[in-house]
Specification:
This protein has 351 residues and is an alpha/beta fold. 33% of the residues lie in helices and 22% in strands. The protein contains 13 helices and twelve strands. The chain has helices spanning 51-58, 86-92, 104-107, 114-123, 131-144, 150-153, 163-175, 193-210, 221-227, 245-250, 255-262, 304-308, 330-341, and strands spanning 9-20, 23-35, 40-44, 67-76, 79-80, 97-100, 181-185, 213-217, 230-235, 238-244, 314-317, 320-322. The strands form two sheets. An eight-stranded mixed β-sheet has the order 6-7-8-3-9-10-12-11, sandwiched between helices. The protein has a four-stranded antiparallel β-sheet with strand order 2-1-4-5. Strand 7, helix 8 and strand 8 (213-217) form a beta-alpha-beta unit. Helix 4 runs parallel beside helix 7 (163-175). It is globular, with a radius of gyration of 21 Å.
């Protein structure tokens, strides 16, 4: 990727809150990143870290109330998506930016045929297309994502599809209008391992066929290693580390990232044990002061700065930034985790 390439999507200081009984929860707190043409950006973190909320906000998919966007911008094709009204967003959703949701059975309407739902996705952005053209395009896309007998399947209902086929149908709808940005939110969560691999291949092929930049939201580091070229690590609503896959997997520089890597089973070696992250994610109604990871961090060691001061996301190398007051000490933490696991967390195949 050329350094002169302009980002297709630029997120700056995105901050989102939820008004709930008894207070306000800041689910996304000052998140910034760029997405470049051809990128596959993996966004990882525990449940509740703000991974999905951030992308849903830019598409106007958060219910308001209780959600409210209190700051930031999301620039796409010269427009700030956060300033567009519903009608303007509808022209972009499904055409220029498309999303694959994690539960296809919930996302698909059970009383309409797959073909009808796919046709709607095509027709709404191509009103001049004839019925025959829409059907032909729909069958072509179903075939592209690997659905057998696509012409017959076009006229079937969601309950007649397996879980893997429903997810393929969702991918077909997402790529129907050749979007510039494809967002996949936990696309393989509800599928068994064999079907996961097949859906991943379909998703990768779809992204390559359309040339779309992609955001892959997941808690599965193996999935990220397979598909992404860049990584964004989130914890409690904030970005704690970001960079190329090679840089972060080769030399993680935030204790939380080390904890995630140490919690993943390995297929390429016999492990002594997994090294889990101690403690629990914070209560976002009352988040910790300073670095939000400090109550669980073995590097804190009673140092006041961790609890008192929010660490800034600073560049520490080419295509690599981290938000840790003691990033230079993380190598020692990696060595300790390696000894406990009996393998090297930063190399080999992830399960």
């Amino acid at each position: 990727m050329s350094v002169n390439t302009e980002p297709v999507l630029s997120v700056r200081d995105l901050t989102i809150e939820f008004v709930v009984p008894g207070g306000v929860i800041r689910a996304v707190d000052g998140v910034s990143y760029d997405l470049y043409p051809g990128d596959v950006l993996g966004v990882v973190g525990e449940s509740g870290s703000g991974k999905s909320v951030g992308v849903m906000s830019m598409l106007g998919l958060l219910p308001s109330p209780p959600a409210r966007i209190v700051g930031g911008s999301v620039i796409f094709e010269g427009q700030d998506l956060l300033k567009l009204n519903r009608r303007q967003l509808r022209k972009i959703r499904g055409k220029r930016i498309a999303m694959v949701f994690q539960d296809p059975m919930a996302a698909l309407n059970p009383v309409f045929k797959i073909g009808a739902q796919l046709a709607e996705a095509i027709r709404i952005h191509n009103p001049s297309a004839t019925r025959a053209e829409v059907r032909r395009r729909g069958i072509e896309i179903l075939e592209m994502v690997g659905i057998p007998e696509p012409a017959a399947r076009y006229d079937q209902y969601p309950h007649q599809f397996s879980g893997g086929m429903r997810q393929r149908a969702m991918i077909a709808m997402a790529i129907a209008n050749r979007p510039a940005v494809l967002i996949a939110d936990e696309p393989t969560t509800a599928l068994d391992v064999t079907i996961q691999a097949q859906v991943l291949d379909v998703l990768k092929t779809a992204q390559e066929e359309t040339g779309a930049a992609a955001i892959l939201i997941t808690h599965d580091l193996g999935l990220v290693a397979e598909m992404a070229n860049r990584l964004l690590v989130m914890y409690a609503g904030r970005v704690v580390e970001t960079g190329s896959i090679d840089r972060i997997f080769g030399r993680p520089c935030h204790p939380y990232t080390v904890g995630l890597l140490g919690s993943v089973p390995r297929l390429d070696a016999d492990m002594n044990r997994l090294v889990p992250i101690e403690g629990q994610p914070p209560n976002m109604a009352e988040p910790p002061s300073g670095c939000r990871f400090h109550p669980r961090c073995s590097l804190m060691q009673g140092r006041e700065i961790c609890a008192a001061q929010v660490p800034q996301l600073l560049q520490i190398g080419p295509s690599h930034s981290t938000a840790c007051h003691f990033a230079e000490e993380v190598d020692g933490l990696v060595d300790r985790v390696n000894r406990e696991m009996g393998v090297t967390i930063t190399s080999g195949d992830l399960a």
